[in-house]
Amino acid sequence: xxxxxxxxxxALALPASLTLAQxxxxxxxxxxxxxxxxxxxxxxxxRLLGDKLKDRWxxxxxxxxxxxxxxxxxxxxxxxxxxxxxVLALGFNGPVAFAPFMYAKLPYDPARDLAPVVMTTxxxxxxxxxxxxxxxxxxxxxxxxxxxxGRMNYASLGKGSxxxxxxxxxxxxxxxxxxHVPFNGSPPSAMSVAQGETDATLMVAPAxxxxxxxxxxxxxxxxxxxxxxxxxxxxxxxxxxxxxxxALAWNGLFTAAGTPEDVVRRINAxxxxxxxxAGVRVALEQQGLTPVGGSAAVFRELVAAETQRWGTIIRRIxxxxxx
Length: 323
What we know:
Blueprint: H1 3-20, E1 30-34, H2 41-57, E2 61-65, H3 72-79, E3 87-92, H4 93-102, H5 110-113, E4 114-122, E5 126-130, H6 138-148, E6 153-156, H7 162-174, E7 179-182, H8 186-194, E8 200-203, H9 209-213, E9 217-222, E10 251-256, H10 261-275, H11 278-286, E11 290-291, H12 296-317
Parallel strand pairs: 1-2, 1-3, 6-7, 6-8
Antiparallel strand pairs: 3-10, 4-10, 4-11, 5-8, 5-9
């Protein structure tokens, strides 16, 4: 469903959702757990939302950064919280849709222990390289990486992240090898490429852009089907000859399974309202993040579809990880 349609539907449903909200919720501070470090794209989204939601809820919203284990630590905090909506986590592909297929054992079951509340933003990953590399196109990068015969190394936002898995998919499709260097989040990952510690990365744009402007990082392609509005000069991987590498790094709010539906509806309606705020939308879009919104049901369907799609890809690639 088109993003604008989702947001329009959410706006029409807002008054009814609020009247259904549980009386007195929230009754205490709301914790918004971010399974990524400060300065990451998830952190940017969480702090923008938290600043607006505290006024709508009449309660403090504390953003708590809990990076580590590819996002598993942060999502586990939400999965094991009391099911009352006072602990939310800004989840993403890795620890929700990918993890069940990559890890032999998880501290939680995403399908059983987490309740999708609302999709917040989506954005493509961007293939970026250190500017000193002798490559200016995807074709040149692939040829260079093949010549390196496994000695290319790439940064990611952590084991099992969309950043990690999308590069693994590109390597499988383009038939070259590389060494994975995981970091806890996008800022250190981007810095490693800018400083030449790693050769390349596939990650969301916000943390890369300062290094691009400084001439230390070069962007080669985006993983969406269409070019990114703020990066119109950067082609898609499909244009570069790899239509099978199509991926969006989505994120959204989750809470513990069993949270009352009226509380879920209240949170969903208020987040949709915040995502329609002009200032919030501009701030997100300036970072290369696309506001989404929509109902909890639509978000649940997306998570289920992404889990099925990437489960097939992960099995084909044969990627297995240790937490």
